[in-house]
C-alpha cells in the first residue's frame, strides 16, 4: 500500500511543518513507514478557512445529496479493502477480526445516518401558522427547524481507529447534518487515518461536494488540537479520549471570545452492582461475563466495567474464586500503543499501592514489553475503604477491574450516591433482588447515561434509542450522545422563520410537506400539508 | 400589601446576612418599603441542599402532578391580584397595562407548559426492542427518554419582572420537567418577586410538593449569584441580563470541577435590513413600525431593533425624515431603574462621540432624572464607518437605534457577514427585493435565532415554533430557546435503559403506551403499544 504521509486540506496535500510523526507498531515495537507530516498553524488556518468556505455551499445541499455522500464514503472505505484492516492491525495491534467488525460498524453507521438524513424528520420542524384575527394581537406565522452549526473539529480516538476516528460517529453526525469536518488524526494510527481520509476525499469529489467539506491534519502535541478548537471558524468539537485531554479542550473552547460546545467523552468506571440473589444463583456465570467484558479489546473500551460491587459472604467468595481462575488463564495482549500501555501499568501500580487493596488475581503468563502487552488484573477492597481512597474511583484504562465488597444494600446505595458521572451503570439482579432495587436504580439514573440489567456495558449498539454520554467526567455534556442516531443532534441549532414568504422558506417548512417528514403543527405531530393562509 | 422582605428557603423564611437591600422606585426616585434581607452563603447552601433533597422526590412525581402544580402557581399568581401589578409598577416603572398583559403571558406560559408536560411526548421516548436472533450478535432491548437534570438556578431579569423572573419561562421550564428551582430575585423588583414566590410556595404546599422544590434569595452583588452557580448541587443555570453578567456566570459554571450548562440570554442588536423596493414603497410605514418597536417598553427589550440598514438615496432620506419627526414628538419615559438609565446615557454618549456618527433625531421633550427618564434617540452613520467602529456594534439598552446607510446590496451582505450573533434579524422587502434576498437570508441565518420578514422583532410569541436564542453573544447556547415550549428541553438529559424488566421502567417506556405519547419505535414515530418479547 502506498501512503503519502501528508495532511489533507480539502483535496490538497500539505507537508506541514516538515517535522515527521513516526508511528510505531505496538505488535513488535518496530517503526512503521512512512513518516507523517505534522501540521502547523498555517495548516490549521487553511483547513478552517476551507471549511468555512465549504460550509456556505454544503449547508445548502439537499438531504438526498448528503445521504449519497455518506453512502459513497462507506463504499469508498470498503474499496480500500484489506489494506485498511492490515494497516490498522499494524498500527493498533487490534486483531483482524475485531477490525473487520469495526469496519462493518463504521460503514453501517454511515449508512444509517444517511437514512436518517434522507428521511428528514430529525430537523424537528415546527409550524405555528399565523392567527391574524387573534385578540388582543395577531400571531405571526412561525416556522422553526434545526440547521447546521458550522465547521466541526473532530479528534480521532485511539481505541476505535475506524468507528470513532476519521469517518466515525462524530464525522458522520456532522456531515449528515450539513457541517464540514476538520479531523485531527490520532497519532497512534496515522496510516489508517490517511486511508480513510482518502476515501472521504474521493467520495466528496465523486459527489461534487465542496473540497473543504473535509480536511485532516496530523500532529502529536496538544498545541495543534488547541489551535483547531480556538480557531474563529470552529463551531463545535467532538473528542473521545482522556479526562485531562477532554477537559483541556473543553476549557479552551469555553475561554474563547465566542464559546463553542465540546462533546468530549472521557472517563468512566462503569460500575456493576451484583445483588445478592443474582450472586447466589448465577455467580459463576456473572464472573465469566465480567471477565469477558473487562478484558474485551484488552480493556480498552470506554464502557469497560472497572468496578464491581457485591455483598460480602459465601457467594462473593465463590464469585471471586471463579473470577480469579478465569483471569489467571487469560493471556496478556497487545495494547494500542506504548503510551497507553505505560499509563496502564502506572495506574495498576498506583491502585495496588492503595492501602486496604489486595490482589485478587492476575494472569499467570508473562507480559512481553516488546509486544506492548497489558495483562489482566483484578484487585479487591471493601466499600468503606473505597470511599476513603479517591484513587480507586479513577479510571484505569486497560484489562483491570476492582471488586468491592459491601456489608449491606444501604452501603451499596451510599457508594452509588458518591460516584462521579458514568457512561453506564449495571445491575445484576434476580426477581427477588429487583423488588428492592428501585432506589438503587433511581440513584444510578442520576449518575449514568445508560443503565443495564443483567448484561454488561461493553457493546454499544448504534441505534435510535442508544445513549452514550453521561454526567461529567463521563462526558462534558450529558445532554447529548456520541453513539446512535441522536448523535446528529449535537451539531445543529434551531432557527425560527417569522412571516416568511414560501419561496424563501426551507423545503421542510413550506405549506406543502413535499419531503413527507413529521412536523409539529400547532403542537400536533403530523405529516399533512399546512393549508395556505387566506 | 404586607411584604416581609425575607428569603424563601423552601417554605421557611430567613433574614440572611442581616444586610438590607432597599429598592427605589424609578417613578420618583423615592425608596420603597420594606428592606429586603440579603441572603448569605449559608442561605445559598441551605437552598441548594433543600433543592437536592427535593429533587429525589420531585423527579418521581407524575406529569399530571407537575401539570397541576404549574396550573396552581398560575392560579395563585392571579389570586395576588392588583397588589402584584401595583407593586411591579412602583418597582419597575412599567405601565399598569403592560404589566397586566405581562402577567397574562406569565400565567398562560405556566398553563401551556403544564399542557405540554401532561401530554408528555416531549420526553422523546425511543424504543429499540431486542433482536435476540440477530447475527452475528443479538441486539439488547434499548429504551431511552429525557429525564430531569437536577436543581436549576434561575436569575430573575429586570426587564420582565413577571415573564422572565420568579415564575417566568426558566422556572416554568425547570418545574415542568421535574427540576427544583432556586431563584435569585432581581434587586430591582424584590417586592414583586416576594409576591410571586409566595404564590409558588402556596401552590407547592397545596399540591403536596416537597418544600425545597422552590427557593428564592435576595442579593445585590455578583457574589451570591456566583456562589449559587458554583454550588455542587446546581445542575443548570438560566439567566437573562447583561453580556458581562451572563459571561461571568458562564465562566464560573465552565470552571467548576464538574461544568454545568448556562443558558444566558445577553446581548443583541437585532439588525433590520430595509431593502430598496420596500424602502421606496413603504418607507413611511416602516419608519412608524420601527419607531414603535425601538421605543416599546422604553427600548428595554432584548429584541429591540438597535441597527437599521438601508441603501443611500432619496428613499432613505425620506425615511429618515419621517423617523426623525416621529422621534422628536416621542416622549421620554421611566426606565427600569437608575442603573439601567445611567448605562443608557453612558452608552448614548459613547455612541454619539464616535467619529462619523451624527444625530438624526431625539425627543424634543426634556427628560426628568427624578423620573429615571430615558429619551428616544436616533443616530446615523454609514456602513464603511460602522465597520471601522466596533463601539457601534455594542448593544445600547434603551430607546435608541442607529440608522446605517450602505452603497450597495453587496455592502449590506458584507456588514451582515461581520455581525456578531443576534437573537433576531429582520428583512423589509417587497416582491422584487425578495428575488435577490436569498444570499442575505443565508448569511443572516448563521447570525440569528429568528429571522423576520416585513415585521419587527419585538413581540416574542410563546408557542411551539418560537426560537429565542442565537449565536454568542445573543445567548451562551444557540442550541436552545428560552421562550416557547422547546424551552423545556434545556433542563433534561437522555437516559437509556438496557434490558430492563417492565416493572422497573418509567411508564413512558413500557410496552403498553398507557400515556398515549408519541414514541420512536425502531426509528418510526408511533403511539402504538410495543409487543411483549417472546
The termini of chain A sit apart by 65 Å
Question: What proportion strand of chain A?
Answer: 15-25%
Total count of strands of chain A: 23
Oligomer: homodimer
Helix content of chain A: 25-40%
What is the 3D form of chain A?
globular
| CATH fold-level assignment of the largest domain in chain A | Aldehyde Dehydrogenase, Chain A, domain 1
Give the largest interface. A-B, 78 and 78 residues
Which regions of chain A are unreliable across 5 or more consecutive residues at pLDDT < 50?
Answer: none
Sheet bearing the most strands of chain A, described?
Answer: 7 strands, mixed
Q: How many separate structural domains of chain A?
A: 2
Radius of gyration of chain A: 25 Å
Q: What does this protein structure show overall?
A:
Two copies of one chain form a homodimer. Chain A has 534 residues and is of the alpha/beta class. Chain A folds into two domains: 36-266 and 482-489, Aldehyde Dehydrogenase, Chain A, domain 1; 272-453, Aldehyde Dehydrogenase, Chain A, domain 2 (3-Layer(aba) Sandwich). Chain A is built from 15 helices and 23 strands. In chain A, the strands form six sheets. A seven-stranded mixed sheet of chain A has the order 15-17-18-13-12-19-20, sandwiched between helices. In chain A, helix 12 links the parallel strand 17 and strand 18 (400-406). In chain A, helix 2 (63-80) runs antiparallel to helix 4 and helix 2 (63-80) packs across helix 6. The longest helix of chain A is centred in the N-terminal third of the chain and has 24 residues, at 96-119. The model of chain A has no long low-confidence stretch (mean pLDDT 97). At the A-B interface, strand 5, strand 6, helix 8, helix 15 and strand 20 of A face strand 5, strand 6, helix 8, helix 15 and strand 20 of B.
